[in-house]
């Protein structure tokens, strides 16, 4: 059987690829600091530039740099080892809307290499970073957390969570249900995984703790001879499954015109969705 590999577009868009580590790559993901992160005596060592009158030079945006270990190409079932545009779109949204994430307990599903969770940790009270533990992905996330610890301001932990296994241990269930913000980037790419993802969200949203979900993805279009048109099958399958399961969710599409802090091509087919459970909203 032929094995096909896929490569994230970030590989061609990021010019800061560096060393190899056991077939992985460590890349520098440079980002601009939002104005609220630029302050005197910042523990990250941000240098404050001043003009000739000793005033802060607000025109010059300071930059940070995350060092992220990842793969540049994988087989389809291991794409979580790569960095995709959706993770960077979600990271931009977090940095653009600090009040939505500050002092919150944040849960990321399908966290991959952990980039979005690390960005969430700039603001959150606690970040729970989860993924299925294959190909050493949880250890990779922990390495990325360690190499970027100077930026991390919150408690951050990693846990295994498999969309295809909803039989969670009691401690894990209690931990997950504490979260009030759920993040997911580029997890809708496979029919079976999409089904499991919807079921996982349904279980998490069936909680006494009100939650809001942010899902970032890039619609992948293909031409089908059956329909004689170009469609985005996985995204459309995701929407159909929500309807089929009769999930009482409020789905909102967030405009993606917020500032771009990371360097990537924010293509027009990128989507950011905000989901709430309507029943939960009505009880609060």
From TrEMBL:
Gene3D superfamilies cross-referenced by the UniProt entry: Vaccinia Virus protein VP39 (3.40.50.150)
InterPro entries the record matches: Methyltransf_16, METTL22, SAM-dependent_MTases_sf
One Pfam family here: Methyltransf_16
Name of the protein described by the UniProt record: Methyltransferase-like protein 22 isoform X1
Gene Ontology annotations for the cellular component aspect, listed alphabetically: nucleus
GO molecular function, one term: protein methyltransferase activity
PANTHER family: METHYLTRANSFERASE-LIKE PROTEIN 22, METHYLTRANSFERASE-RELATED
Lineage: Eukaryota, Metazoa, Ecdysozoa, Arthropoda, Hexapoda
């Amino acid at each position: 059987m032929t094995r096909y590999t896929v490569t994230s577009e970030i590989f061609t868009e990021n010019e800061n690829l560096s060393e190899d580590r056991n077939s992985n790559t460590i890349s520098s993901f440079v980002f601009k600091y939002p104005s609220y992160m630029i302050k005197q005596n910042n523990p990250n060592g941000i240098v404050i530039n001043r003009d000739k009158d000793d005033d802060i030079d607000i025109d010059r945006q300071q930059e940070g740099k995350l060092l992220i270990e990842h793969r540049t190409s994988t087989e389809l079932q291991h794409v979580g080892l790569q960095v995709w545009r959706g993770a960077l779109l979600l990271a931009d949204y977090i940095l653009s809307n600090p009040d939505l994430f500050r002092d919150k307990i944040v849960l990321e599903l399908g966290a991959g290499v952990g980039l979005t969770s690390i960005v969430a940790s700039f603001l959150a009270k606690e970040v729970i970073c989860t993924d299925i533990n294959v190909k050493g992905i949880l250890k990779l996330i922990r390495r990325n957390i360690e190499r970027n610890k100077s930026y991390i301001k919150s408690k951050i932990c990693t846990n295994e969570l498999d969309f295809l296994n909803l039989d969670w241990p009691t401690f894990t269930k209690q931990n997950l249900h504490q979260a009030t913000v759920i993040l997911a980037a580029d997890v809708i790419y496979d029919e079976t995984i999409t089904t499991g993802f919807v079921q996982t969200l349904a279980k998490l949203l069936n909680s006494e703790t009100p939650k809001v979900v942010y899902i970032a993805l890039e619609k992948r279009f293909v031409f089908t001879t059956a329909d004689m048109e170009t469609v985005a099958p996985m995204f459309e399958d995701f929407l159909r499954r929500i309807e089929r399961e009769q999930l009482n969710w409020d789905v909102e599409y967030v405009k993606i015109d917020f500032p771009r802090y990371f360097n990537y091509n924010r293509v027009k087919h990128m989507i950011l969705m905000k989901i709430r459970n309507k029943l939960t909203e009505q009880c609060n």
